[in-house]
Amino acid sequence: MSFVLLIAVVLTAVVLVVGAFVVAKLLGPRSYYKHKGEPFECGIPTRGTSWIPVHVGYYLFAILFLMFDVETIFLYPWAVSLNSFGPAGIISISFFLLVLVLGLAYAWRKGALQWK
């Protein structure tokens, strides 16, 4: 029974996505001119190429931010239901925070948090 439901959900998703593409293709505007294909930012025309090398430190810093941000989100449900967990909850969150701090210390030690 659950397999039939899964197939129905997947088929519904495929039909809706294909339907949206078809409707957009039929009803969407068809105008094209040179300026539509250019990169655009804040109304200022670009000068030179848009393909410039970006320092990998930006990506590393963003990934670290997302990682620690998501881990911080996991702390909220634990804090809300702290009374129902008891000592096992304290031990488990202590282990979680230990792993979090060790990850931060590793990133700090490797110099991932420094702008060079």
Describe this structure in words.
This protein is mainly alpha-helical and 116 residues long. Helices cover 67% and strands 3% of the residues. The protein has a two-stranded antiparallel sheet. Helix 2 runs antiparallel to helix 4. The radius of gyration is 25 Å and the shape is flat.
- Tally the helices: 4
Uncertain segments of ≥5 residues (pLDDT<50)? none
Proportion of residues in extended strands: under 5%
Spatially, the strands of the biggest sheet line up as 1-2
Overall average pLDDT: 84
Helicity, as a percent range: 55-70%
Rg calculated over all Cα atoms: 25 Å
In short:
The protein has helices at residues 2-27, 56-80, 82-85, 87-109; strands at 40-41, 44-45. By secondary structure, it is mainly alpha-helical.
Which SSEs are present, and which pair or pack?
Layout: H1 2-27, E1 40-41, E2 44-45, H2 56-80, H3 82-85, H4 87-109
Antiparallel strand pairs: 1-2
Helix pairs in contact: 2-4
Write out key terms for the chains shown:
116 residues, mainly alpha, two-stranded antiparallel sheet, 2 strands
